[in-house]
Design goal:
Rossmann fold
């Protein structure tokens, strides 16, 4: 069964931005795999309120881009902000984008793409507060529910999850 990596930090993950695409890829016959800088558990949130935890399948430092057909970067404010400070996580994202395989990032998750220096010249969307960060990093930011530019798929917010998941699955063929 082809595997899809979901990369998150230890906490601050917007729950639905992890669980909805996870369910969509699982229902489509893929194996979702939760990666994080450390093994153990990660804490999801419903906005600012702690929700359930989820077990990490593998530390990102032990993962290989070759083992996955796509990468999903869920949002939440604290999640990508912490993730972009982890050298191994940023390196994994940079290598994944360079591989040409689909990389899907929603809400605040494009912060990690900015840190990986992979947004220059790309048409993208995100949570509105990242607009300036993405533009300063060389992206063409637009306010649309889902934007696909090459192998990058981006969306703005949880309301966009149906279109986000559909675009991810479409990119997988």
């Amino acid at each position: 069964m082809p595997k899809i990596a979901f990369l998150v930090a230890a906490e601050g993950i917007e729950r639905v931005e992890l669980t909805e695409p996870w369910k969509a890829v699982k229902d489509a016959g893929y194996e979702p795999v939760l990666l994080s800088p450390e093994t153990g558990q990660v804490q999801t949130f419903n906005h600012l309120t702690a929700a359930e935890t989820a077990p990490v399948d593998q530390a990102v430092g032990d993962a290989s881009v070759d083992d996955f057909v796509a990468l999903v970067l869920p949002g939440g404010v604290a999640n990508p902000d912490a993730l972009r400070t982890d050298e191994k996580a940023v390196g994994f994202v940079k290598d994944f984008v360079a591989s040409g395989k689909p990389v899907a990032a929603i809400c605040h998750a494009p912060w990690t793409l900015v840190e990986a220096d992979v947004v220059r010249g790309r048409r993208m969307t995100s949570w509105p507060s990242l607009r300036t960060d993405l533009r300063n990093a060389g992206a063409d930011w637009v306010d649309e529910s889902v934007v696909t530019d090459g192998n990058l798929i981006t969306s703005r917010k949880p309301d966009d999850l149906p279109a986000f998941s559909k675009s991810l699955l479409s990119a997988l063929g």
